[in-house]
Amino acid sequence: MNEGWIVGALAALLAASYVNIQVANSEGRDQAISRFFVPVLFGISLLVLWQGIVRGFNVPGVILPAPSDIWARFLASTSILWQDFVQTFVKGALSGYVMGAFAAFATALLVDRSDFLRRGILPVGNFMAALPIVGIAPILVMWFGFDWQSKAAVVVVMVFFPILVNTVEGLRATDMMQRDLMQTYAASYWQSLLKLRLPAAMPFIFNGLKVATTLALIGAIVAEFFGSPIRGMGFRISTEVGRLALDMVWAEILVAAIAGSAFYGAVALLESFVTFWHPSQRRSR
Amino acid sequence: MTDATMTAPARSTGFGRAVRGTWNAVFPVVVVVSVIFAIWYAACVPMNIKAALDQAERDGVIVNPAGATARDRRDMSAIGLAFKNPEQAGDTFVQERPRLPAPHQVARELWKTTGDMVLRGKAFSKRSLLYHAWVTLSATVLGFAMGTVGGVALAVGIVHSRVMNMSVMPWAIASQTIPILAIAPMIIVVLNSIGITGLIPKAMISAYLSFFPVTVGMVKGLRSPDGMQLDLLKTYSASQGETFWKLRLPSSMPYFFTSMKIGMAASLVGAIVGEMPTGAVAGLGARLLAGSYYGQTIQIWAALFSAAILAAVLVGVIGALQRMTLKKMGMVR
To answer: What's the gap in Å between the CA of B215 and the closest CA on chain A?
Structure first.
């Protein structure tokens, strides 16, 4: 036991909380800089507390490694991490995401042409979106082999239903008046689809696309628990857990967290370009 | 439903209209589901035809194309083989370890491991899916309860404390973009190594997964009263506690139930995935894993369907609670 670390970490936490309270109650609390500063300081103080507890109580690395150890491991094994990232994210998650999104989009366009189909598919799609679809991973690994194809297949199925449901909902988002206006212009089905209904559906579609980013990464990682070539984030996590090399596991989790938020951020950025006209995209105050 | 009321003759009774409305809502779903089952049966033929042909050849039947060995057939198109050998199509629905089991095989396995076990008085033997579903269900519900209580508590804190809102809320939102499920194997192994085994590690994964959706949904819900309503309570000189109990909490209920549905689905996924990595012996996730190790495809599909049924029941229970509560509160008619 090493009291210095604990006292230091607690002091840092208290000091950070004090600063945060001061900032949160000050005049400038609504400015962008303080809205950025407060959560970052809070996150840093939690990391310091983590470090202090691990060092102070001499927690063994097989239970909880210190953030500094994780960071050192991250820097030391960037080549392995990059290889795993390419295998799981680029090959598995991203390709499956793109295929699933296009499939869902095409299905939604077909479904949208018939009111009967829409009333049939929407409840089924909503039901499927709530199921633990990740359980089909063992079946798809059996069908498509151990490499990334099976992971992409899991991702396709996982992202399909949220995007389908949201797109079908979005294509209904125009109101009668707007559709009537297109009719008075003598617009064809495709004209009114491209110029009115698809743009109006974009906020819904992006909602589905954003939900699907996390699902894609989860699907690709969990599918690797059922068998994979000797690389990939899920493979590395399950084998390094078995070897009790938890610093490597945490480094993979760090990669997964960065990849997940960057993926989400990229889709959100694309959304702000495509749906710049939507009220939710207006700069607040 | 709207066109039902429009096309119905004016003197039709409320009952007739209700029947017609239900029919209009249910019929398309029935059609879509039957189409899915038809596609499933049709897909069984090409998926299983190669194994069926190999078996038929061993039994001395001549299969097309004549002269091709099992090895040659492996590289041929399964759909082409299915068209060339229509007599063997029936064999694709009765295999022991098919690549794609037919729906009736899955249904029979489900009955054999649930209803049949109950009839034979072994409802909770290790071979019964009811037992495995119960193991998963207990972890799910325990974790879900922990996650919901924690999430609501954090949401109350965030709504009432400006500094918590500024410091914690961005992380709660950001955490939804992170594949948290990836830490499941580690939580299981680490808790095992410090002597915590069984239900608790799985429940903690479930709790962790349901925690953030409930937090984010509840913050939205507790903030849903508009300025006018909050001002009204201020003119009554209501305290912060009274505002919370009489305005914020009641108006958060629709959000609460919606986020509980999301949290419940996430909890179930967490419990199932939590059963996979350590070679757990009980639970639906363990059944999935064991099935994939031993190539017992029918067992995998049966476990998958019980997981789906479990999810539907759990989400359905919350939906029913939601309807009852909101009806009592006068929020829906």
So the answer is: 17
